[in-house]
Amino acid sequence: MKQIINTVNAPAAIGPYSQANLANGVLYISGQIPVDPATGKLVEGIEKETHQVMKNLEAILTEAGLTFKNVVKATIFLKSMDDFAVMNDIYASYLDADSYPARETVQVSCLPKNVDIEISMIAHQD
């Protein structure tokens, strides 16, 4: 059975998708962009954007009763690989070094709302 996960502590979906779906103990989190859920506005600059995306992901994980330790896979989309080092340091600061998820990072030509970063995750209940 699929359970839709939704929280006001992360940006509302802006299309025909859910923030996340929980199915058979696996949480599939839709790509998060740097929208501040309190204001509905985008934050700017790769540092602030990465922090906001990670906070949005954390809010969805929390709503599902999970943490970043439960994340098994992350997909990161960057508009520029020049932002990789800054993003990577901030991303790592939210994770436990003993439980890093699998991951890929790809450069793309454009992202929704022309942001610099989008991250999706898959997490598993223990």
TrEMBL record:
Protein name, entry field: 2-iminobutanoate/2-iminopropanoate deaminase
Domain of life the protein comes from: Bacteria
Family: Belongs to the RutC family.
A Pfam family recorded for this sequence: Ribonuc_L-PSP
GO cellular component, one term: cytosol
GO molecular function: deaminase activity
